[in-house]
Design brief:
By secondary structure, this protein is of the alpha+beta class. It is built from three helices and four strands. The protein has a domain of 68 residues.
């Protein structure tokens, strides 16, 4: 089964490098799927810490990297409230808006 994942983008985001641009990369996966778990978050979002804590708890899961790969994308649309997120990137915000458009959603969301 083919999975569209930009491994370089995921790795860069995981280590906090926001200067990497996204590009599609086709990878062959085994019969078992490894899922990319994306969290869109911001340091300027007061309701995001519980979601980030939940994502952090996954580090002890024995199926980490085999069944799923968690990643947090810091978006910049919360910066307008006055607290600039140093990890935020307009590319991550664009990525979230692209998902929203594909799914015909009228809004984007950072969880609480």
């Amino acid at each position: 089964m083919t999975v569209r994942v930009c491994f370089a983008l995921s790795l860069a985001a995981a280590i906090g490098c926001a200067a990497v641009t996204a590009s599609a990369l086709e990878l062959e996966s085994k019969p078992t799927k490894t899922h990319l778990l994306e969290l869109y978050t911001s340091e300027g979002c007061s309701s995001c810490p519980p979601a980030e804590a939940g994502l952090s708890k996954l580090k002890d899961n024995p199926r980490l990297w085999q069944d799923f790969v968690p990643i947090a994308f810091h978006v910049d649309y919360w910066d307008r409230l006055g607290w600039r997120d140093p990890f935020a990137s307009k590319e991550w915000t664009a990525r979230q808006y692209e998902y929203s458009a594909r799914w015909r959603s009228s809004s984007v969301y950072t969880p609480g």
